[in-house]
Amino acid sequence: MVDDHPMIIEGYQNTLLATKRENQNLTIDIALDCDMANELIKKSAKHTPYDVLFFDISLPPSKDGQITSGEDLAKIARVYLPNAKIVILTMYNESFRILNIIKGINPEGLLIKSDLTSRELAEAFQHILETPPYYSSTVNSFLNTTVTSDIYVDEINRKILHLLSQGVKTNALKDHIDLSMSAIEKRKKHLKLLFSVEDGKDETLLFEARKTGFI
What we know:
The protein is α/β, with parallel strands linked by helices and 215 residues long. The chain has helices at residues 6-19, 34-46, 70-80, 95-105, 118-130, 137-145, 155-165, 181-194, 202-211; strands at residues 52-56, 85-90, 109-112, 134-135.
């Protein structure tokens, strides 16, 4: 379980341990940031692979800046622990944010924290173990009313957003991303269209991206 709020993790742990079935034995490791989680994922792959991984989306980034969120960790887990079931927990409930998570990760569970009760967490856990996927009510409502969307922020665009949020200037982005300056500018322009940035400012782009959980 990965979340940067220890009390939240404690609540998740207590719920699952109190509601586990008689034939289930739960051993739960916890991580509070991306570096700790990345280390546990890779260690687990070499010894006893995890069956289920819970990732919060908003997490302190890794020290090298390469892992910036629970989404990044989920993609790492797909490589190192291909048989593990991934559960994403997030406060972000905007429709395009949900779509990005489903398109980018296709998790076995997607739970919006504002929907979550102890009972639902327990039910979701058992459902994910037996017949995934499990989506909380906000996710299902969105999927039932939305056919398609063009709003998708890929891994490179998310890296651009992260670097800009760290104070890296546009003309220095090419030092961190293997793209030409013109390609980077095109991606920035596309991001501003996606986030409806009318004034063209990077500050506004970062504000909108942060507000919807992409940073």
